[in-house]
Design goal:
alpha/beta; 2 domains; 10 strands; 11 helices; binds nicotinamide-adenine-dinucleotide; Rossmann fold; 5-stranded parallel β-sheet; globular
């Protein structure tokens, strides 16, 4: 029987939700491109409930314990005295999340003699020493596409919040002000601007699709060019590199693994010279 060590972020400081804003969530059966969403035989939690924090336990406790496995859940993941470090040596499976990652360094992998599988409950593998994992025969798994659309919606939200100066303006309202000039002095329409994305994989192309109706000029760079019909449908212009894209980009969002591609970008200083104002969002 396996020991599953699960690292999750802490519960809300205001307490675990007693009720939720919605009593249902939309049924999504497939992602763009046709990949289907997970289709378990049964679930024993209510969709939409908070499962990602410690008390939610990813909805796994009954499922695992009924099958005879052990589940240890903690948010305490850093340092030699952490619960994670103490529980790791006899764990068979580690589960953690991209935003609250349990780092599996070479040293930790060496200590984890039983470890066979490390799962990211989401997407991202930056918190694993992949070379050490490979040498140890450890399987690293993530849930492809599981939150790519969430990230693309977030990117659109950030672009709109920034271009409209929303967060500083909200700050004025919270302070009790109605300082219109302070709010609008850096507030613009996105319409007509050029927006570029560094990488057009699942996230990047979802960002492009979502921004198309805003009547912007879309640009992208990627190691692999999108199919011609997709480029035509989106009205998006391809560039060989992030640096090539800047003269045409007022907005630039990065969604490539590790953001290496952004390293080819001009510095924000150069990108903000008069006449070439460009905001970079990673
Ligand atoms: N933290 C999170 O919750 C979270 C969620 C989703 C995605 N992510 C991360 O965001 C990144 C993108 O996710 P995705 O789902 O779109 O992945 P994806 O694999 O669908 O797309 C990645 C794209 O990046 C391109 N690319 C790779 N290296 C490049 C380079 N040097 N220059 C230009 N393009 C390059 C690839 O060709 C590919 O099209 C991944 O690193 C993923 O781990 C994180």
């Amino acid at each position: 029987m396996a020991k599953v060590l699960c690292v999750l972020y802490d519960d809300p400081v205001d307490g675990y939700p007693a009720k939720y804003a919605r009593d249902e969530i939309p049924q999504i059966s497939s992602y763009p491109g046709g990949q289907t969403t997970p289709s378990p035989h049964a679930i024993d939690f209510t969709p939409g409930e908070l499962l990602g924090s410690v008390s939610g336990e990813l909805g796994l406790r009954r499922f695992l314990e009924n099958a005879g496995h052990t589940l240890v859940v903690t948010s305490d993941k850093d340092g030699p005295d952490s619960v994670f470090e103490r529980e790791l040596p006899d764990a068979d499976i580690v589960i953690s999340q991209p935003f609250w990652p349990a780092y599996l360094t070479r040293e930790r992998i060496a200590k984890a003699r039983n470890l066979k599988l490390a799962i990211t409950a989401g997407i991202g593998s930056d918190h694993y020493d992949l070379q050490a994992a490979s040498e140890a025969g450890l399987t690293i798994a993530e849930i492809t596409f599981s939150n790519s659309i969430s990230v693309s919606e977030h990117v659109v939200m950030m672009i709109l919040s920034l271009v409209r100066n929303y967060i500083p303006s909200y700050g004025w309202v919270v302070k009790g002000g109605w300082n219109i000039a302070d709010c609008v002095e850096r507030s613009y329409d996105l319409e007509g601007m050029a927006v570029g994305t560094v990488a057009a994989g699942r996230i990047g192309s979802a960002v492009l699709r979502r921004l198309k109706p805003f009547d912007v000029r879309l640009h992208y760079t990627d190691l692999h060019r999108l199919p011609e019909d997709v480029e035509r449908d989106l009205g998006v212009t391809f560039h060989q590199s992030a640096a090539d894209m800047v003269p045409s980009g007022r907005w630039k969002a990065g969604s490539s693994p590790g953001m290496q591609a952004m390293s080819g970008s001009p510095s924000p200083h150069r990108a903000t010279t008069p006449g070439a104002a460009c905001r970079i969002m990673g």
